[in-house]
Design goal:
The protein has seven helices and 17 strands. It is α+β, with helices and mostly antiparallel strands. It folds into three domains: 83 residues, Uridine Diphospho-n-acetylenolpyruvylglucosamine Reductase, domain 2 (2-Layer Sandwich); 135 residues, 2-Layer Sandwich (Uridine Diphospho-n-acetylenolpyruvylglucosamine Reductase, domain 3), CATH 3.30.465.10; 65 residues, UDP-N-acetylenolpyruvoylglucosamine reductase, C-terminal domain (Uridine Diphospho-n-acetylenolpyruvylglucosamine Reductase, domain 1, Alpha-Beta Complex). Strands 6, 7, 8, 11, 12 and 13 form a six-stranded antiparallel beta sheet that branches.
């Protein structure tokens, strides 16, 4: 099969999506760290069907594609991103009774924290830990997002996923092969394969009194405000190594407050790297390298990034 040229691909995307497609869109305004260069092509989708169609077109054309949700947990290069960036705004949510519980079906662009609040207001427990967690349902499903002793693995029943060259497929919780901030889908990038795309997820919830759920969520919110800094950041930069906390290791290495340009390691929690104004992605990446090397030299521990570096980095 002859692949379409980029011009032909753009024309096809414009026929399908019209002015939802933009060219050379700055990604800094779409990421929580407020850094990142332009996307060659930038498309906003508003439903799971549009998300699937966009990925299909890009894959068929041999055009690199990347699905962007809430913009957390990624660090976009100053050089931007080649190919198509799909901003996922597929947010439809529905509920159905199932046995003793309720199943919530949420499209992958739904905001995770907003969904948790919606569930609480309905007297449905299971997602209170997600209050204040940035990002979308899709990103949470891929990364097995979690906090306060729970995670997506604890609630997921199934995820509907688009597979390159195959189409829609439903993954059970077991097939997701979840680990700590890990899943079968997240390993696509490590295997250098075309990424599978989460379209929606089914989550099992349990009826509980609204006041009980609200109190629990308020406690988590207070804890988050006490322990984590505000400001522009990617979220937690490194995964916690076994038997350690990444923030403790970086702090003990003497790096709280260490800065490069406008990028600084938070004084409040050393696993948060803050953009205090005009930081570049390279400034933040240099902080990452400093923290990783210092912890390795002082403790013999090689930390693993929780954040994904994406785009056209100069060192690649």
């Amino acid at each position: 099969m002859k692949l379409m040229t980029t011009v032909q691909t753009v024309e096809r995307l414009r026929r399908i999506f019209g002015d939802q497609l933009r060219v050379s869109e700055s990604l800094a305004r779409h990421t929580t760290a407020r850094v990142g260069g332009p996307a060659e092509l930038f498309l906003t989708v508003n439903s799971a069907e549009q998300l699937e169609a966009a990925a299909e077109v890009a894959y068929a054309a041999g055009l690199p594609y990347f699905v962007l949700g809430g913009g957390s947990n990624i660090l976009v290069a100053d050089g931007g991103m080649t190919g198509l960036v799909i901003l996922n705004r597929a947010r439809k949510v529905s509920f159905r009774h199932s046995g003793a519980g309720v199943v919530c079906t949420a499209e992958s662009g739904a905001n995770l924290s907003a969904l948790a609040r919606q569930c609480i207001s309905r007297g449905l427990g299971g997602l209170e830990w997600a209050i204040g967690v940035p990002g979308t349902v899709g990103g949470a499903v891929v990364g097995n997002a979690g906090a306060h002793g729970s995670d997506i693995d604890a609630s997921l029943l199934a995820a509907t996923v688009w597979e390159p060259g195959y189409g829609r497929r439903v993954y059970s919780r077991e097939e997701m092969a979840y680990g700590y901030r890990e899943s079968a889908l997240k390993r696509d990038r490590e295997d250098n394969r075309a990424r599978r795309v989460v379209l929606s997820a089914e989550l099992r919830l349990k009826p509980e009194p609204v006041d009980v759920l609200t109190a629990r969520a308020d406690g988590f919110t207070a804890m988050r405000k006490e322990r984590q800094p505000g400001g522009a950041s990617t979220g937690s930069m490194f995964k916690n190594p076994e038997n350690f906390y990444a923030g403790y290791l970086i702090d003990t290495a003497g790096l709280k407050g260490f800065r490069i340009g406008d990028a600084v390691i938070s004084e409040k929690h050393a696993n948060f790297f803050i953009n205090e104004g005009e930081a570049t992605a390279e400034d933040i990446r240099a902080l990452v390298a400093e923290a990783w090397n210092s912890v390795r030299e002082q403790f013999g521990i090689e930390m693993e990034l929780e954040v994904e570096l994406v785009g056209d980095w100069a060192f690649e």
